[in-house]
From TrEMBL:
The keyword Protease applies. This is Ovochymase-2-like isoform X2. Pfam families: Trypsin. GO terms for molecular function: serine-type endopeptidase activity. It comes from Notothenia coriiceps (black rockcod). Residues 58-320 form the Peptidase S1 domain. The keyword Hydrolase applies. One of its GO terms (biological process) is proteolysis. It comes from the Eukaryota. Transmembrane segments: none annotated.
Amino acid sequence: MRLVSDTDTEQGSRSLRILPVPGLWTERMTPEQISSCVSGSKCGVPAPGSRMGPSLRVVGGAQATYGSHPWLVSLQYRGSHFCGGAILTEHWILTAAHCLASHSKEFLSGVRVLVGEFDQRVDDEEKQAFLIKSASVHEKYHHALPMNYDIALMELDQHIVLGTHVQPICLPLADDSIQPGTSCIMGGWGRMKEKGRVPAVLREVKLDLVDPAKCQYVLHTVRSSTRPQRPARPQPAMTVLCAGPEGGGRDACQGDSGGPLVCPAGSGEGRWVALGVTSWGKGCGRSWGKNSSRPPARRGSPGVFTDVRLLLPWIKSKLRQGGLGSGNNKTLIVSQKSE
């Protein structure tokens, strides 16, 4: 499972359009409700009996157990999965900006957000499908710098019915001390190897967090295929974290974008927090420890994830505003409430 440096969906000349929103109904949240996303009693807990944890033996990824990722969603267009996401509340989904920003209102109006998904060949017990009502992409995201601010929120057209296999993920605290080397888990329906096949059943992989200095160093050695003539160098306000072994073999892949990298909460209460949003990478499971000695075309990278801790103020602001903010925000209104 791995996102290569191209975006998961077909690129075109279309861009996110800002639409007028007179009289729009939106789901705004109180400070207390937002706080519950961070430390709520019902977030970040897998279904009883499901197997998930840093002790899981994973080599290159393995099939997940039903209910181990109750917060994970599948974004589908015309029945085909193209990105993931994570449930924050009964109405809000966290995903990657690049999953949405290159598409028109017409495309997004045809996207189905599936929760309770596990085996895409069957209708799982708690599976539910929703439309996107509005989508907010971070104002500083730009496709030419795909590693920065790659985060978005989606508001659904109806409330999710939570259950044993459909639950929200916790947001981390800004000062959560989740250290380099921590074993985290990423799940998705992305390709099982570079240019490989797409699985029908949810898979997961264990990835250890990379030291930030090493993360930034290795990103200097790779190029973004969205701008092949320029190095994809970290920007001054870099918003990413890296995860994955130097020797490769375990990673995310095309189709995993937007899904969460979940790590054990610092509180040690058996909860999981969405520390990262699957964003970018060079190849699928390539080794990257000796990039400087390889030709550019053969270099790899760890998994690159948007660091949710750094963007908590943006997330909370959007939830308070119901996705709407100042006039320069990138909010696409996909569908109006029909009442």
